[in-house]
């Protein structure tokens, strides 16, 4: 959009999501970066049933989506902005909904021939004993149980003994009506951000706790981001190509982040796509941007300048 400096821009944060606090941190960092660049920024806390009225009343011209999880990452905010004709950052309704739902995104990856960990999915109205029996039939332990609609590793449990399965299902079903059981990939963790059809440098994630959970993700110094990852040029290209394929398949725009694991042989598997990746001080996308010479302020500005309506 032309002359964004004259526009009234809302950074929308918070809301009822389990990731609201992370969203507020992301939003605060983005608002500060854009103010430094000279933009007129207002941070708005999401109150779902009054958001449309608030945007109208405050004469907001552009929405910078800093919401994680429900309402911001699932296509709901995107649909509202489309109906109101307000340009917004990131991908559209369909890309957001598919990216947010692990059942749908993993089925899409599999259908498109994109390497992803073997998986099955289950619904809350199914008999728990039948789910446990099927998981035991399909997978060896450890197995990963994930809520289908959460980020930041919330509602994700690595099950190492069969007697833990029931509690893992209860935990995952707390957050959504469907869950994914996924083969445990026992290798290293990586992530690749994509923007403008360009894959950023690959990051390897090494956690000092041995697992990359909510605590490791947001507690400074717990997880180490090695960027660029110390891997071969061939594996780097393979991961970047995988990330680009996922980005295109999901009809993404703006910046998204594709998370991967390698198995013991070093083959990469896509875990998920994050269509509104974290942008806090400890976040991955700003790290990858810095590694290719793009400052946090410039990254935020680039995302803002791509705000639009009429997306898929």
Descriptive overview:
With 312 residues, the protein is of the alpha+beta class. Helix content is 36%, strand content 22%. It contains 11 helices and 13 strands. A hairpin with a 2-residue loop joins strand 8 and strand 9. About 3% of the residues have low confidence.
Instruction: Summarize the biggest pleated sheet.
Output: 6 strands, antiparallel
Oligomer: single chain
* Whole-number mean pLDDT: 91
β-strand amount: 15-25%
Termini separation: 18 Å
- Count the E strands: 13
The Cα radius of gyration reads 19 Å
Strand/helix succession: EHEHEHHHEHEEHEEEEHEHEEHH
Low-confidence residue ranges: 212-220
**Can you count the helices?**
11
Query: Pairing-aware structural class of the strands and helices?
Result: alpha+beta
What best-fitting shape do the alpha-carbon axes yield? Answer: globular
Helix content: 25-40%
Keywords: ATP-binding, Cell shape, Cell wall biogenesis/degradation, Cytoplasm, Ligase, Nucleotide-binding, Peptidoglycan synthesis
Subcellular location: Cytoplasm
Family: Belongs to the D-alanine--D-alanine ligase family.
InterPro entries: ATP-grasp (IPR011761), ATP_grasp_subdomain_1 (IPR013815), D-Ala_lig_Van_CS (IPR000291), D_ala_D_ala (IPR005905), Dala_Dala_lig_C (IPR011095), Dala_Dala_lig_N (IPR011127), PreATP-grasp_dom_sf (IPR016185)
